[in-house]
Amino acid sequence: MAFVRCIALAFERRGLDAAPALAAAQITPAQLHRPDARITALQMELVSAAAMQALDDEALGWFSRRLPWGSYGLLCRASTGAASLGLALKRWCRHHRLLTEDVLLRLEVAGDAARLSLAEQWPLGELREFCLVTLLRYVHGYACWAVDSRIPLLEAAFPFAPPPHADAYAHMFPGPVRFGADAAGFAFDARYLALPLRRDEAALNAMLKRALPLTVRQYRRDRLLAQRVRERLRQQPGATAEDLAGALFLSARSLHRQLQEEGASLQALKDAVRRDIALELLLRGNRPIKQVAQAAGFDNEKSFTRAFKGWTGEAPGALRERAKLAAAAGGGDSGGTGAGPA
């Protein structure tokens, strides 16, 4: 409700009545002033839409000038023609400056992480938190929609102390949240920048008819989820569905559902990763089979051997012995050829 109070403040500063916008979302004056009051995502969508049109300001009073209704739609249009998400976000940052210079956006890549940050050029006052949170949700929501993928965050950072409603941030940002940062921004896996945009003009027109859900709801599907699950399993081969889901900020049910949507399954990914780990250790080292089993995430050698036979058709010890014989035979052939007569 703290964000709705910011919307009411924007009306007050313009000398306008916020009651019709609040009524559109079925928010009563009594609820508005309750410190612990909460609203649903749909209520936030409805009150925001009503306020933006009543104020003719999609920035809802944050900036030194209004951003008339349709401003962020133009930003979406300017960015959607890009070949990749990285180019689209660069356009978004550059063109946002045409709307206002009160806040400047920047996209940077360092190693495996991409970071989108906000630099405040204008005092945002009482609307600061609402402004920074919403701007980051705008960019993140658009990016997820553009590539049709949930984009998990490595971090969402904010330059203020945790507010009383800090627990609500977990519903808005899919990843760790840090307060007391130098600047507002979020970081994510840079590989998402290479994804091609999957939206055309028709999809953009349909989205713009009801764009606000992108800013108040997290996107569901992750097009890199199977790849991220593989990487997590390489680090922790014995991880359960609950372990993996928690690390990826999903429920176990959502993890299974999203993998199924990608044409994958958790068990198949586990088998593939465990097999690769086992083969690598068997063929490149001399670890005892028991240690190979443990490194591949198995509780005991017997269950490992049974699974390995299912993957390769032979026992781990037999495969290692065959590989050694093949290597020795190859070395002998090479030496004999070099020493033979011309």
In brief:
This protein has 342 residues and is an alpha+beta fold. It is built from 17 helices and 5 strands. It has a 5-stranded mixed sheet with strand order 1-2-5-3-4.
Structural overview:
Strand 1 and strand 2 (113-120) form a beta hairpin. The chain starts with a helix and ends with a helix. It is α+β, with helices and mostly antiparallel strands and 342 residues long. Strands 1-2-5-3-4 form a 5-stranded mixed beta sheet. The longest helix has 24 residues, at 316-339. It folds into 3 domains: 1-55; 57-216, no CATH class; 225-323, Homeodomain-like (Arc Repressor Mutant, subunit A, Orthogonal Bundle), CATH 1.10.10.60. The protein contains 17 helices and 5 strands. Helix 5 packs antiparallel against helix 6, helix 6 (85-99) runs antiparallel to helix 7 (128-147) and helix 14 runs antiparallel to helix 15 (289-295).
Topology:
Elements: H1 2-13, H2 19-24, H3 29-32, H4 41-55, H5 71-80, H6 85-99, E1 103-110, E2 113-120, H7 128-147, E3 155-158, H8 169-172, E4 177-179, E5 184-189, H9 201-208, H10 213-216, H11 225-235, H12 241-247, H13 252-261, H14 266-284, H15 289-295, H16 301-312, H17 316-339
Parallel strand pairs: 3-4
Antiparallel strand pairs: 1-2, 2-5, 3-5
Helix pairs in contact: 1-4, 5-6, 6-7, 11-14, 12-13, 14-15, 14-17, 15-16
